[in-house]
Protein: Transcriptional regulator
Organism: Neptunitalea lumnitzerae
Amino acid sequence: MKAKQFVEISKCLSNQTRLDILEWLKDPEGNFPPNTSSMPNTEGVCVTFIHEKTGLSQSTISTYLTSMLRCELLEMKRVGKWTYFKRNEKVIKAYCDYLL
Amino acid sequence: MKAKQFVEISKCLSNQTRLDILEWLKDPEGNFPPNTSSMPNTEGVCVTFIHEKTGLSQSTISTYLTSMLRCELLEMKRVGKWTYFKRNEKVIKAYCDYLL
DNA sequence: TTTACATATCGAAATATTTCGATATATTTG
DNA sequence: CAAATATATCGAAATATTTCGATATGTAAA
């Protein structure tokens, strides 16, 4: 991991709501209702559920998720009108390795 | 580690200079001149050397180091007129564990 | 005990982040 | 195709961070 990506990830992690989202996605079945489509929660949770759980505005959460995607903390999958997000464990691990 | 401390640490890590300092302190003997006192670099590097290496103002570095101390990324030791800083490996490890 | 050195704190200007409501876009469904 | 649903983007106001120079404080040396 390059320093620039590390700093961008740290910026994402320095906001309580974004951190909450990352933590909630550790257990996507326990923390969110099942996706209305056939997509299992383990392969991504739809933006609406994440939005509803935070209590912040839809536009704010969309921006948050985009920033977490750009620095690669999250992975995205678009299916029909839904967008699903899940943790990018590989990048999270690389972020930790950088520090130690 | 509590969420609040995690967020404060992330804020520290979201600045390139503070990240540099944390990385430089991985090898305090390779990255800084030997302390002028009898304190070995492995037990802490004095603020002046850290300041000189960054190129930023003394007041800025003092503020940076204080914030890194407050969130416990660093440990401090004061001896005579010098202040020495080193990494707090235990907290850094706990920060990583929180993420994974 | 004055001076020099090491570090911390203050006040301020520039820049960045947070968060919103309004609006745009894209997809599905009637 | 029109309406409904899901998500993204825009513009802006409030707040926070960055970084400085000036100054204060604490310790050591002359």
